[in-house]
Specification:
233 residues; alpha/beta; Nucleotidyltransferase, domain 5; 2 domains; five-stranded mixed beta sheet
């Protein structure tokens, strides 16, 4: 079981749409206080289904496009209260995920369970935003070193209106003290012309693929967007 999960985690490098399924399975299939008998028969069946999907779609892969200058964009999302913790009480935490695309194809994707119980959807979204920003700043520094010039601000897609408003208002009041550090870190990046936050409708949020199960049409559309394909099927 662990070998199969490791194989799939390696495949995620060129098959970003599998990140949510593989990372969720890696978390759930490990023995814990809430599930000491893991991996169960259901976990093994889910692993078999994931491997079957990989085998049946071997022709898929990343496709980087030429022209149009250097295009670097990103997005992040979080599902609030959908993840089982390691505790026997069965409390729920959030799952955060995001992507970084270069020339319309993903160069970095991630899907992980948050280490703590978020108090609200906003807090979970801010946590995901900060995780993405840390990765993105590393990519921007590396590209600037290679190219010899500073990149324009990277657009980050965010589907949470409350987070967008907090960043626009620079909400560092006492009411937001539990997320002050996260907001301050993001605002510093905005002021340094490293990023720009762009609100998008939830149905257009590509990063949703890394935090929740999707219907076939939306999954196919987001898969194409992550891989650089012009087709949505």
């Amino acid at each position: 079981m662990q070998e199969a999960i490791g194989y799939c985690l390696y495949a995620v490098r060129t098959r970003p749409e599998m990140a949510h399924a593989v990372n969720s399975l890696a978390t759930a299939a490990a023995p814990s206080k809430g599930m000491p008998t893991a991996p169960t028969r259901a976990h093994k069946y889910a692993m078999w289904t994931t491997l079957r999907y990989l085998v049946c779609h071997k022709s898929l892969g990343l496709s980087f496009r030429k022209g149009g200058g250097l295009i670097l964009d990103a997005g992040c999302d979080a599902s609030f209260g959908n993840e089982l913790t390691d505790g026997a009480s069965g409390g729920a935490s959030a799952r955060a995920g995001g992507y970084i695309r270069l020339q319309h194809a993903a160069i970095d994707v991630w899907s992980k369970r948050c280490r703590y119980i978020a108090l609200s959807t906003n807090e979970a979204e801010l946590y995901a935003f900060v995780l993405l920003l840390r990765r993105l700043l590393c990519v921007r520094r590396l590209l600037a070193l290679i190219l010899g010039y500073a990149l324009p601000p990277t657009i980050i897609d965010e589907d949470n209106k409350a987070v967008d408003l907090m960043l626009r208002r620079r909400d560092l009041t006492s009411k937001s003290r539990h997320v002050r550090v996260n907001i301050g870190f993001i605002i510093d990046a905005i002021d340094a012309a490293e990023i720009e936050c762009k609100w998008v409708p939830t149905q257009d949020q590509i990063a949703n693929t890394f935090t929740a199960a999707e219907d076939r049409v939306r999954f196919a559309r987001n898969r194409a967007a992550l891989m650089g394909s012009r087709s949505i099927v």
